[in-house]
Design goal:
homodimer, 258 residues, alpha/beta, two-stranded antiparallel ribbon, 11 strands, hydrolase (chains A, B), 5'-nucleotidase activity (chains A, B), metal-binding (chains A, B), 5'-nucleotidase SurE (chains A, B)
Chain lengths: 258, 258
């Protein structure tokens, strides 16, 4: 008989990232943990999957032996697919991804490998949460986020998630006592103003680095950006039915079949 | 004075794919065309962007000189970003992506490089359409789709698109006279049942190929899958606000701050 929930842990910064260590440690207090994470960083991979090359998995030695871990040569979405189909001997009760080193709030959800793993789990019908800390540093302090992550995960394990949604959780980079609480939010309307840093190779050919500035156009007080700026942890329910249902009616007035 | 619309053409199968040739030829009848497309196939890349390596662009020689073309070392989303910010001398009136060799209907939109280019344009506030033909073959017959693509593009150039949406167009693999028309649809609820084909390297180590079967759970007659099966071209308005607005109220009943 199953007594503890089975929790699959993954991320997009790779299996050696400090963020996933923290997430593993919190999850061990809540269930049986299996880790399947990329063998190298996959940030900015969006919802990529590996169709045209082979996938490799390696069992990782875990010191205390209190969970199982595997590294995978693929993307975060690949990790979830291969975990559920090849590695796990039963269906996980929850998939958690992160803790990402850096924000996945507002439009960043679109580019996020962390969230692609959660969304992949959601597509498979498994409750899933992506966690991100607003600090890109490898030495980010993940300690303050621990009790909040525990609260959110306990709620999801107890209540479940509506079919077709996963949670996008972003955590402000603050000391624990400065974090004001957890807020359910909508995704802010924002984007990146790109700037390409144009350089020359030693051979004199142009090349580019993508850089940019994040611009929040959204003045709403119900958005993830607003919550994070005010010191709250943001929780956005994310869907993978991308249909803009509100636009169907207008499109049906077009002359597409004359 | 600008008399013709400026149309940016991209794709995810790479600049040499037959599908993009067809799209370029149709777009030349409707506006001034600039092509910025990946220098190699990018299928299954989702909404990946290149953050950790350099981007290179090459001007491509075009025989008749009736449009400009560039290949880019990045993903489809990179192509749109670098085109808008570095290559084009004015903002495009429309971005079209495709014609993809293979379906991007229903859940495939999530994994689609073709659609990531259209969505990236949408994020930048530019009307955008992704086109896909339901034939994976390199020798697919794109001729029948031409008049329908022209109709859809003319409507978008005339009517514009609501802020925050782009169009996902899928075309059945049929002779022109067998195509019944164009239908505005919602994304069908469907997914892939993965199957990993497990093999051994010559050295005896396991590795995997991702394969799978597409499963449509959706019985609705207003979905893209239904339309395509019945011989229609499907047009789904796609949004990049991923907030599941219908789930906000329920999440707000949780005890997240006790």
């Amino acid at each position: 008989m199953k007594d503890k929930p089975l929790i699959l842990v993954t991320n997009d910064d790779g299996i050696t990232a400090p963020g996933i260590r923290t997430l593993i440690n919190v999850m061990k207090t809540l269930g049986d943990v299996v880790v399947v994470a990329p063998d190298s960083p996959q940030s900015g991979m969006g919802h990529a999957i590996t169709l045209d090359s082979t996938l490799h998995i390696e069992k990782i030695h875990v010191k205390n032996g209190d969970y199982h871990a595997y590294s995978c040569s693929g993307t975060p979405a690949d990790c979830v697919k291969i975990a559920v189909n090849e590695i796990l001997d039963r269906r996980p009760d929850l998939v958690v991804s992160g803790i990402n080193h850096g924000s996945n709030s507002s439009i960043n959800v679109i580019y996020s490998g962390t969230m692609s793993a959660a969304i992949e789990a959601g597509i498979e019908g498994i409750p899933a949460i992506g966690f991100s800390l607003l600090d890109y540093s490898w030495n980010a302090d993940f300690e303050p986020s621990k009790p909040f992550i525990k609260t959110i995960v306990k709620n999801v394990l107890k209540e479940g998630l509506t079919d077709g949604i996963v949670l996008n959780v972003n955590i402000p980079n603050l000391q624990q006592k400065k974090i004001k609480g957890i807020k359910v939010c909508r995704q802010a309307r924002a984007n990146w103003k790109e700037k390409f840093d144009k350089r020359k190779t030693p051979q004199g050919k142009d090349y580019y680095w993508l850089t940019g500035t994040f611009v929040n156009y959204d003045k709403g007080k119900d958005t993830d950006e607003w919550a994070l700026e005010k010191g709250y942890i943001s929780v956005v329910p994310v869907q993978f039915d991308l249909t803009a249902h509100h636009a169907l009616q207008q499109l049906n007035t077009w002359n597409l079949n004359e």
